[in-house]
């Protein structure tokens, strides 16, 4: 039985993305590889995008969430390694994302995650904000 278990452990990664207190995406990568979209148009200026990534039951070290336009990194947020019992959520101010969206004028942005357990990284979601500029004023 042990040799079969080696093949079933791969792909147990999952993540959640919250906008404020609302869960917008919960994805189990072994079941669903599609890249989903987070709509920021209902966000308030004080809201945060909260991301947590689970590597087969573990939280990575040297965690980075980046905002990308195609392959270009527009902004990176680096997060401290979590202490035992602490929340693995990584918080990003929505106003920072919206400011970048305005500067790239309608180009599609992706939320990208990497850590020591996933050095190649992973696109978690695309970000849209059709009417965010109006709602954040």
Written overview of the protein:
The chain has 137 residues and is α+β, with helices and mostly antiparallel strands. 15% of the residues lie in helices and 45% in strands. The strands form 2 sheets. The protein has a 5-stranded mixed sheet with strand order 3-9-8-5-6. A 4-stranded antiparallel sheet has the order 2-1-4-7.
Q: What is shown here, in short?
A:
15% of the residues lie in helices and 45% in strands.
Secondary-structure map with pairings?
Elements: H1 2-8, E1 14-19, E2 22-28, E3 36-39, E4 48-54, E5 63-69, E6 72-79, E7 90-93, H2 94-103, E8 109-115, E9 118-128, H3 132-135
Parallel strand pairs: 3-9
Antiparallel strand pairs: 1-2, 1-4, 4-7, 5-6, 5-8, 8-9
Query: Unreliable stretches, pLDDT < 50, 5 or more residues?
Result: 1-10, 132-137
Number of strands: 9
What value does the Rg take, in angstroms? Answer: 16 Å
**Topology order in helix (H) and strand (E) letters:** HEEEEEEEHEEH
Summing up helix and strand content along with how strands pair, one would put the structural category as alpha+beta
Mean pLDDT: 85
Shape, principal axes of CA atoms: globular
Number of helices: 3
Beta fraction of the residues?
A: 35-45%
How are the strands ordered across the major sheet?
3-9-8-5-6
Could you tell me how far the N terminus lies from the C terminus, measured between alpha carbons in angstroms?
A: 59 Å
Q: Helix coverage percent of residues?
A: 10-25%
Largest sheet: 5 strands, mixed
